[in-house]
Automatic annotation (TrEMBL):
<protein>
    <recommendedName>
        <fullName>ABC transporter permease</fullName>
    </recommendedName>
</protein>
<keyword id="KW-0812">Transmembrane</keyword>
<feature type="transmembrane region" description="Helical">
    <location>
        <begin position="138"/>
        <end position="159"/>
    </location>
</feature>
<feature type="transmembrane region" description="Helical">
    <location>
        <begin position="204"/>
        <end position="223"/>
    </location>
</feature>
<keyword id="KW-1133">Transmembrane helix</keyword>
<feature type="transmembrane region" description="Helical">
    <location>
        <begin position="94"/>
        <end position="118"/>
    </location>
</feature>
<feature type="transmembrane region" description="Helical">
    <location>
        <begin position="20"/>
        <end position="38"/>
    </location>
</feature>
<feature type="transmembrane region" description="Helical">
    <location>
        <begin position="50"/>
        <end position="73"/>
    </location>
</feature>
<keyword id="KW-0472">Membrane</keyword>
<feature type="transmembrane region" description="Helical">
    <location>
        <begin position="166"/>
        <end position="184"/>
    </location>
</feature>
Length: 227
């Protein structure tokens, strides 16, 4: 497994898109933090927690794209056969990609949080003194980016097409969940992506369970194709 992780880390870090996507997620949060930091009529709101929301969702989408690329580019460039020859076990391939992408998702989340705070300070705003709401927001962002990255790995492996996988993730997170909440009256807290963004149960559990099932399905289909 150590060799599989090393192989996947070399692959991920050698892709320019990995770092551009993570940086873009951080830059979006910096701009949002700056915008809220410049506001002087926030009332009971605070600039830091307000800087997340839709922007954090877009950042998570960019992190998911990093995960999609783990399999999508392999299929696009026909290099999956080489990966199979090196790592052999489909389960090892999926596990290594999930672990490395999860780590990159955590890095992306930390970058988003740090640059959001930097944006607020650059705009003359003040960071929250307590760890209550701010800590909850940070936890939600980190969990959202990690799970989004893992979901991206699964979608990339199952759909075998980078644009299609990113499109499915974007439509679900930005359109389908809102539609379900508005028309079918499904509570936002029960929806995987929205519930995780709000850090409200059972959303994170649903997201984690769906991601685990999708990753298992990815390993199964990869083994079938290899056979």
């Amino acid at each position: 497994m150590k060799n599989a992780l090393a192989y996947e880390w070399i692959r991920a870090r050698s892709l320019r898109s990995t770092w551009l996507l993570l940086l873009a997620a951080g830059v979006l949060e910096f701009v949002s933090g700056l915008y809220w930091g410049l506001k002087r009529d926030l009332g009971d709101l605070d600039a830091f927690t307000s800087s997340f929301g839709l922007v954090a969702r877009l950042g998570a989408l960019l992190v998911a794209a990093v995960g999609v690329a783990a399999f999508g580019l392999d299929h696009q460039h026909g290099t999956l056969a080489t990966t199979r020859l090196v790592l052999r076990s489909p389960a090892r391939i999926v596990a290594a990609r999930a672990l490395v992408t999860g780590g990159l998702g955590l890095l992306g989340g930390l970058l988003m949080v740090a640059l959001a705070a930097a944006g607020v300070l650059a705009g003359g705003g003040v960071l929250p003194a307590g760890a209550g709401a701010a800590g909850r927001t940070v936890s939600a962002v980190l969990l959202l980016t990690v799970l989004s990255g893992l979901a991206g790995v699964a979608l990339g492996g199952l759909l075998r097409h980078t644009a299609a996988a990113i499109g499915v993730f974007a439509v679900w997170t930005l359109v389908a969940e809102t539609t379900l909440a508005a028309l079918a009256k499904v509570p936002m807290t029960a929806l995987p992506f929205s519930g995780t963004a709000l850090l409200s149960m059972p959303g994170p559990v649903v997201f984690a369970a769906l991601t685990a099932v999708a990753l298992a399905a990815t390993g199964f289909t990869l083994a079938r194709r290899a056979g």
